[in-house]
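Structural prep section.
Before we set up the soaks we want a predicted structure of the protein with S-adenosylmethionine in place, mainly to decide which crystallisation condition to try first. Input record follows.
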Amino acid sequence: MSIPEVYKKWFLKLLLGPGDTMTFRKYRDEPLDPEGVDNLYIHVPYCRNKCPYCPYFKELYNEQQAGFFGDSLLREIELHTGWLKGKEIQSLYVGGGTPTLLNSHLIPAIDRLRQLCTLHNVAIETTPTEINNRVTGELAVMGCNLISLGVQDFNPKYLDFLGRKYTVSDVYRAIDKLEQLNFHNFNIDLIFAMPGQTMKELDQTLQIAIDTGAHQLTLYPLFTFPYSVIGKSQELSHVVMPDGKTRKQMYYHIMDTLTAKGYKQVSVWSFLKGNALKYSSVTRDKYLGLGPSAGTYTGKQFLFNTFNIKEYLAMTMRGQIPGSYIMDVSPRLERLFWIYWRLYETGISLNAYRMRFGSDFMDDYGKWVRLILRLGYACRTDDHIMLTKKGIHRIHLMQNHFALEYINRIWTACTMETPPEEISLSALH
Ligand SMILES: C[S@@+](CC[C@H](N)C(=O)[O-])C[C@H]1O[C@@H](n2cnc3c(N)ncnc32)[C@H](O)[C@@H]1O
Ligand code: SF4
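Run finished without errors. Recording the tokens verbatim:
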């Protein structure tokens, strides 16, 4: 049995109990149950150019379309005023796409949210070519206190391979400007394990990234979706990716280098320096997603908004939640999703589990924990089950295998001309 097959069987056995299904059905105006939701996400689906490797939902930027999107976003917020009023929202994450392209439309949306509720943190993604005095002024008006800059590499050869339309000098200019704004977290995204990339080249990029003084470095291996509609649109089918052994060596090198420099690993991909606030794009517990393709997770339901901008505009105009697929989440799956994201953050606090679910983690999952401890994938401290280096690498493989398979399946179905009635995630091939 190949290693991925072992993981699949092990993971599914852990994941699915009797009666649990992981099936998305077409969304038909069902009410959401936002009790306990205290995070927001806005997806801004526009970029100035489409990078060939990028699977995220986006269209080419067009000023008129952007204006329509801004109006629809305000309409979508109005659909949720009932429960947003007076709420404490821990974080608003604005992702994309390239959200800073639409700052002038995001300002009224964030103003409206601030009239309705308290926003404790506002995080946004951007890209080096977008950073100028106007944009940094707008970020200050929006009250963004966390930012992520998609640098991808400091080596012109790989910027070129990734189809990025800027030079290394542009990157330095953007970093200098952002560093003047005193964000609570300034994160830099990099991509590694690219075809032909050597350890020396990876190390050079890593050292430059460390020298920038950014609070956090996030390093993703280049993901490809070769077997999907998305994969075909990625234009990467002709490239030969590094093998698993090289990828593991690179990953261990990143972990060793950054921990030796005093960074703390705060997720499978991210490393944080000092006491800065953590920047995270995916690990919030319950969240409401706004904008095309945005996901919403209430703990009881998982909803994806439509991946069609025209449909998004039309549905919000009619006063409808612009949902496309919804899945009911059983209490067992709710726990497993929570555990999955804590493992993604490299460890589980037993106390946090007790606070969230009212039971003891070891009573609920002791059998699995003891197995993982015996295999050397984790170690136990008083309150924590912490993954070891070997365990983090396993999670990285699982993340790669399952997340890509799930994301691929949902995103492929959502972008089909005739989307299916149901998308089943439990029937893995
Ligand atoms: C949605 S992008 C937002 C940032 C901004 N649009 C940019 O590209 O600079 C978020 C991050 O996802 C990562 N990313 C996108 N596609 C990827 C892929 N195929 N493999 C690995 N990382 C990827 C990149 O590091 C990127 O910075
Ligand atoms: S990587 Fe960023 S800039 Fe490139 S297409 Fe994706 S979202 Fe847009």
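Observations: The domain at 1-22+331-415 is CATH 1.10.10.920 (Arc Repressor Mutant, subunit A).
Flagged for discussion at group meeting.
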